Amino acid sequence: MLKSIFATTLISATLFAAGCTSMPSADQQAKNLSLLQNKTWTLTHIGATEYKTTATVNTPIIQFGSDLRVSGTDGCNRLMGLYAIKGEHISLGQLGSTKMLCKNGMQLSAKYSEALNKVTAYQVYDKTLKLLDQHGNRVLQYTTTTP
């Protein structure tokens, strides 16, 4: 009888511990949100292609507010909309934008908008933000100077 109680307790404790380690803790989620929100993120990569600000092309930026609003630029036009977070998954709502014609930024703007439509998850650490697709591949990568 004592052996069966001990075995049941051991199995239950093991399953409980395994379940706790497979899901991010509320503290970790809060930390991730604090690293993500209320910062200006400057684009460094679309997929494997690196982007830098030049004299003729502005680099896209994005900001995630604590009010679950997203805003920024695509290198030419202003973007705005809503987002939702669940764990490490992020869902960008339909983003609105201005419709300016930019002499040198339209190709980057199109690539950036296409990449944003693929985003389903995020990773943030230190001063780097990665937006990932449904397969975990990096779609967009940013950096920030905000601590």
TrEMBL record:
Secretion signal span: 1-17
Segments forming domain DUF306: 36-142
Transmembrane annotation, as ranges: none
One matching Pfam family: META
Highest rank taxon of the organism: Bacteria
Classification via InterPro entries: DUF306_Meta_HslJ (IPR005184), HslJ-like_sf (IPR038670), Hsp_HslJ-like (IPR053147)
Keywords in alphabetical order: Signal
Species per Swiss-Prot/TrEMBL record: Acinetobacter rongchengensis
Protein name, UniProt field: META domain-containing protein
